[in-house]
Fold these 2 entries.
Entry 1:
Amino acid sequence: MASSSENLKEPEKELIARLLKQDEAAYRLVIRQHQSSMRALAVTIVGNIIADEVVQEAWLSMLRALPRFKMHSSLKTWLFRIVANEAKTRLRREKRSVSLEGLAHGRGGLDDRFSNDGHWSHIPTQWELDTPEAILSKDQLKECITVTINSLPPLQSAVLQLKELENCTPGEICNILDISASNLRVLLHRARNCLFETIEHFQSTGECKPCA
């Protein structure tokens, strides 16, 4: 049976070997590859103000833990897990959350906009507009989507960031955030539903109104 490290692509294994040898060029490469995504994930959990501090702590944790990295996952997934752990630790330290369970919720019941496999039950009717007005509103809509994602409860926001923007697999997301597959489905469903409502409202009124 192949070991976990054999599942990694050769360039990544070589990069990890260079990191273990304390190759400064390798460190700079990893930072260029993952810094922005790590910060984006940190923002979803702790907000913009202390996200940089969380990422800095994550890099320090990575350096300390690197000799023990068993390559059971990709380097990216491992780094994201470190960021998530640092962010949740910082939340506890700041006493900004009573429990991680509270990070997951923030909205009431679900509706039927999505099926159990995460696909749309029905496509928003106005998303295919290509009028000049619709084209002009694209930048505003992107900004509204960003505001909406950042307004979600932290774990919902993190799940949406990892799934839709980082293209992580469900297994990777569960590993990064230390959540169950069933919890992932609920979090993703709620986050997508909120995003759907916001986009639908924007398309109808031109107003960005993130769901409460």
Note: The chain is about 65% helix and 0% strand.
Entry 2:
Amino acid sequence: MFETRPELVQYVKERVIPIQGDLIQEGLGILPEVRKVLTEELDVIINSAASVSFHDHLRDAIQINYFGAVRVLALAHECKRLLVLSHVSTAYVGSNFPNFSTV
């Protein structure tokens, strides 16, 4: 897409801001001053954070993958201008079965 629409590179650089956080901390470990800006200005959240290790203890995997997603959802509910919340799941959720949605 960027090859055919090079202007999108600049658009993304101006609008996409990655932030540091921690899925297992309350409030996602986001600094209060950063969270305030997010809740006031954010219009899109793309959450792709997760653990894909099969060696995690179940308690840790649930804390990261389930409760982490719940914490992202809580942030989304706080955002005054949010239009989109996109949650990208792990590679192991999809299926190669035909008509998987009806299986």
Note: Residues 30-90 form one domain.
